[in-house]
């Protein structure tokens, strides 16, 4: 496992918005925004919810002139993109557009400009608007780790200013937006009583300055083996389905296999998703006895769905595998897995849980997951929307939802997330150390493996001090919680669509 830390890269400058030309029925040249043309055509072709957006109808425009006027009515590409999203607050919460696809590609490689501290914000006790933060996780190799920040650390000031929250529009969260800021550490004082009316946040008289640098995160955060009675349990905390680390993931399972583990605890509690192919590989490493069976199927918009079914229905099916580009997988052939998952667990994390469920016993410990069952792909401004031949005049790219995943039993649309078998919320004032057998969620899984109802009951009976959560801050840009495909869509299919539509 490795991390790469270096100074921030210079990102591509945003080019001036250019124009492209269209011919109307009178052979008059009509100018339309080139980027907007790319956006509308890409969404018209690929968008999962195209059938629900009237502006994306194939017969929406009667002439090139009408189409050009429509495109030019939007002052920014982002405005057009947002106008084409279907029910942003409830259905499509995850499509996005970027003005720098180089940064997007770096993100998919696991590289982002961050300080490495992930935290949640809570209302301060006995205060109307003061708030404080508690660190959930510190990324290995980050500035936060180098500065000694640890999981469970509490802070209440940024740059010497007390954090406050009155509403989503009245707060000082902007203090976190700079590339460098200081935090003032504190402690939660319950005064030794179970009553909260006298609780306070007390200063530790310690301030730490954090700097954001480019960190290429290794998603394999922790891999350990525990003796549990007469069993051996493997533990893997996996924080992102990053394709560049698939071989390292396979090596971890090779170690589990050589040590003859009997059980596996897969910790996805903070994993927002990533590559669908990496999810298939992980599930195939956990099992191994279902090679060739259906892992999941895909449901696209009606036009694409029909085209796939006509050309080759197998293109809609993802199957369990026994190799990664020819390299054999270290599969464990387990018939049960213990998965730690919370509301931070999304997309590809949920895909693994949902797709394994029809085949083996999946013991989900934690909370309801995020509820993202749709996948996306990167669309570039080129003739076939791939990276090859990309338009050099701008650096925009889109990541729209293009299909939803369905497990082999037909289950999908888990908008409210996947429900745990054992409900156990994290106690932010007693988080424990990730990977430590006494950390509450891991301890619960080990108790289940040991079949110790007494230990599990004791863990679940620990009543945390009630805290009112305000916001959960993650590392990286807004385009997380992603599930994206790596497979190539047949160019003949895209070319036929483009010919028929345009």
CATH level 3 topology of one domain: 2-enoyl-CoA Hydratase, Chain A, domain 1
Distance between the ends:
48 Å
* Strand tally: 29
Q: Could you describe the largest sheet, including whether it forms a barrel?
A: 7 strands, antiparallel
CATH superfamily of one domain: 2-enoyl-CoA Hydratase, Chain A, domain 1
Low-confidence stretches: 1-31, 476-481
Q: Whole-number radius of gyration? A: 25 Å
CATH top-level class of one domain: Alpha Beta
Helix/strand structural class:
alpha+beta
Strand content: 25-35%
Describe the overall structure.
By secondary structure, this protein is α+β, with helices and mostly antiparallel strands. Among the domains are: 96 residues, PDZ domain (Pdz3 Domain), CATH 2.30.42; 214 residues, 2-enoyl-CoA Hydratase, Chain A, domain 1. The strands form eight sheets. Strands 6, 7, 8, 9, 10, 11 and 28 form a seven-stranded antiparallel sheet that branches. It has a six-stranded mixed sheet with strand order 13-14-15-21-22-27, with helices on both faces. α6 runs parallel beside α7, α7 runs parallel beside α9 and α10 runs antiparallel to α11. The longest helix has 13 residues. The two termini are 48 Å apart. The N terminus is likely disordered.
Topology of this structure?
Elements lengths: L3 E3 L12 E5 L5 E5 H13 L17 H9 L4 H7 L12 E3 L2 H8 L2 E4 L2 E7 L7 E8 L4 H4 L7 E5 L2 E2 L17 E10 L10 E12 L1 E4 L3 E9 L2 E8 L7 H13 L4 E5 L6 E2 H11 L7 E6 L2 H10 L5 E3 L3 E2 L2 E2 L7 E6 L6 H9 L4 E6 L7 E3 L2 E2 L16 E3 L1 E6 L15 E2 L16 H11 L2 H9 L7 E5 L9 E2 L6 H11 L1
Parallel strand pairs: 14-15, 15-21, 16-29, 21-22, 22-27
Antiparallel strand pairs: 1-12, 2-3, 4-25, 5-12, 6-7, 6-28, 7-8, 8-9, 8-10, 10-11, 13-14, 17-18, 17-26, 19-20, 23-26, 24-25
Helix pairs in contact: 6-7, 7-9, 10-11
């Amino acid at each position: 496992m490795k991390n790469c830390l270096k100074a921030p890269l210079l990102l591509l400058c945003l080019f001036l918005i250019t124009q492209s030309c269209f011919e109307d029925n009178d052979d008059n040249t009509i100018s339309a925004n080139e980027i907007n043309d790319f956006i509308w055509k890409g969404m018209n072709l690929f968008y999962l919810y195209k059938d629900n957006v009237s502006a994306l109808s194939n017969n929406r425009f009667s002439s090139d002139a009408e189409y050009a006027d429509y495109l030019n009515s939007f002052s920014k590409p982002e405005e057009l993109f947002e106008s084409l999203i279907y029910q942003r607050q409830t259905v499509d919460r995850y499509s996005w557009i970027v003005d720098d696809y180089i940064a997007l590609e770096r993100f998919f490689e696991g590289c982002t400009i961050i300080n490495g501290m992930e935290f949640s914000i809570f209302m301060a006790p006995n205060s109307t608007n003061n708030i404080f933060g508690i660190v959930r996780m510190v990324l290995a190799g980050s500035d936060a780790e180098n500065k000694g920040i640890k999981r469970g650390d509490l802070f209440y000031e940024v740059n010497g200013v007390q954090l406050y929250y009155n509403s989503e529009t009245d707060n000082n969260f902007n203090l976190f937006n700079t590339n460098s800021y200081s935090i003032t550490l504190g402690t939660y004082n319950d005064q030794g009583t179970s009553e909260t009316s006298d609780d306070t946040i007390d200063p530790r008289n310690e301030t730490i300055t954090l700097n954001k640098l480019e960190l290429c995160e290794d998603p394999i955060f922790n891999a350990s083996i525990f003796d549990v009675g007469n069993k051996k349990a493997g533990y893997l905390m996996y924080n992102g389905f990053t394709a560049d680390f698939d071989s390292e993931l396979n090596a971890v399972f090779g170690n589990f296999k050589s040590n003859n583990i009997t059980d596996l605890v897969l910790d996805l509690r903070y994993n927002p998703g990533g590559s669908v192919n990496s999810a298939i590989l992980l599930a195939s490493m956990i099992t191994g006895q279902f090679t060739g069976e259906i892992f999941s199927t895909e449901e696209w918009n009606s036009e694409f769905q029909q085209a796939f079914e006509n050309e080759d229905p197998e293109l809609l099916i993802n199957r369990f595998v026994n190799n990664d580009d020819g390299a054999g997988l270290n599969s464990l052939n387990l018939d049960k897995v213990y998965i730690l998952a919370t509301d931070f667990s999304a997309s590809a994390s949920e895909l693994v849980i949902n797709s394994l469920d029809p085949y083996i016993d999946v013991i989900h410990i934690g909370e309801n997951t995020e509820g993202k069952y749709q996948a996306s792909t990167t669309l570039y401004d080129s003739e076939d929307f791939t990276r090859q031949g990309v338009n050099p005049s701008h650096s925009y790219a889109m990541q729209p939802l293009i299909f939803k995943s369905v497990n082999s039993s037909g289950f999908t649309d888990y908008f409210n997330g996947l429900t745990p078998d054992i409900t156990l919320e994290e106690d932010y004032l007693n988080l424990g150390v990730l990977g430590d057998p006494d950390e509450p969620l891991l301890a619960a899984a080990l108790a289940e493996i040991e079949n110790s109802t007494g230990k599990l009951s004791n863990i679940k009976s620990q009543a945390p001090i009630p805290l009112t959560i305000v916001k959960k801050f993650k590392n990286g840009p807004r385009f997380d919680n992603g599930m994206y495909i790596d497979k190539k869509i047949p160019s003949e299919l895209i070319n036929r669509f483009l010919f028929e539509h345009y």
